Amino acid sequence: MRCLQRKLPALAGIALLIAAPGCGNPAVPVSGPDSATPTSTAAPASLPGSDQGDRVEVDGRTVAGVAPGLGFPAGSKVDTAFGDPGSATVILTAPPPEQVLAHYRQAGPPAGYPVGTDTGQTLHLDGRGWTVEVIATSRDTTVTFARNRPAEQSTAPPQAEEPALTGRDLGVTNLPFNFRFPPGSQVRDLSDTAAGARLTLVEPDPQRVLAFYRTALPQGFFDVTGDRTTGGTTIITFEKDDGEWTGTIEATDNRVTVSTVHRR
């Protein structure tokens, strides 16, 4: 009994130590689910510099230069992808083209990219200093992101070079993706069918047109298959998408004929 009486004060002291605030080692707070910062594996990681776009993981690939906060549809499968800070082009084989178009129609405006034009198979979004182009074919969808260059590049008076023209600018539909026309192009004798397009460029002059395409075709990821001059006529031939599209640029002293052929 005496032994128990001796032990009781010690036990009471231990109890007081445990119960008293500020005694012993302070408790380490553990964040529960409510205090955790939400994360998402689908959220893109931004590259350094707000104008360079996002680096996005899609179908096991890392694509740089995607318009900030936009990304890709769920279940995307990539055929081709290339990008740099400020621009990217990705060809998707899944989901189906109509679902890809629907995704960007719905996701673009809330993310700050309102729809500019929508022809059903081609969609253009413009916002936050970026242009997004979505072009659907029967087999795949090409999504292109491009950072708009700031208007003020220097203190010198603006001498901006005219931009290249798209088929839409000239009313031509059946062209391979990324095919462009020289600034100031004027078209006549246009034939535009599902099998391809054929037209005559009366402006600019033929030498300027040839110089334009010798630079623009490789930049647009076309394979130039021939460039020869015979008897005053220069013929440049090219193809795209493993020969699905082929084309010819035939220049004489006073006019240029451009033709494209879609091999289904």
From TrEMBL:
The keyword Signal applies. It comes from the Bacteria. Residues 31-50 have a biased composition (Low complexity). Residues 29-54 are annotated as: Disordered. Keywords: Signal. Residues 1-26 form the signal peptide. This is Lipoprotein. It comes from Micromonospora aurantiaca.
